[in-house]
Amino acid sequence: MNLHIIALFKFNENYLMEAVELFQNLVKETRKEEGCLQYDLIEDKDNKGTFFLIELWESVDHHNRHNGQDHLLDFRKDASKMMESSTEVYKGFKIY
Questions:
Q1: If residue 62 lies in a helix (H) or strand (E), which one and from where to where?
Q2: CA 71 to CA 73: how far, in whole Å?
Q3: What's the rounded Cα separation, in Å, for the pair 58 and 92?
Q4: How far apart are alpha carbons 5 and 7 in whole angstroms?
Q5: Where are the domains of the chain?
Q6: What's the CATH architecture for 3-91?
Q7: For labelling alongside 28, which of 7, 47, 70, 76 has CA 20 to 30 A away?
Q8: Non-local CB neighbours of 96 within 8 Å, separated by 6+ positions
Q9: Known Pfam families for this protein (predicted)?
């Protein structure tokens, strides 16, 4: 069963250019992963510094493998210094 994820990030406005660069690398590398069906970066239109990752994974196992990838671990380490708050992550399965 496909796993849907929405991850919400809030970056300090002083780091927006750096954040976008980090996200670009993360998205590029993640889209190459087996089981990644969608991985899109969205910027909130009303809240500067707020980004969403819209993810679709073939399975929970594929997502679990993603969590151990170097490009994700590097992103988490580098982004944590620039964020205003902790990442919010919502995971679920399509009902209809």
A1: helix 60-66
A2: 6
A3: 12
A4: 6
A5: 3-91
A6: 2-Layer Sandwich (3.30)
A7: 47
A8: none
A9: ABM
**CA-to-CA dists, residue 92 to 33, 54, 75, angstroms:** 20, 12, 23
CA distance 85 to 96: 32
Please list the rounded mean pLDDT of every run of 10 residues in the chain (96 residues). 98 96 98 98 96 98 98 97 96 97
What pLDDT does residue 52 have? 97
* Tokens at 3, concatenated: 């796993």
Report the chain's terminal Cα–Cα distance, integer Å.
13
- Model confidence pTM above 0.70: yes
**Tokens coding 19:** 């954040």
Contacts of 40 (CB under 8 A, 6+ apart): 27, 53, 54
Contact 22, 75 (CB under 8 A): yes
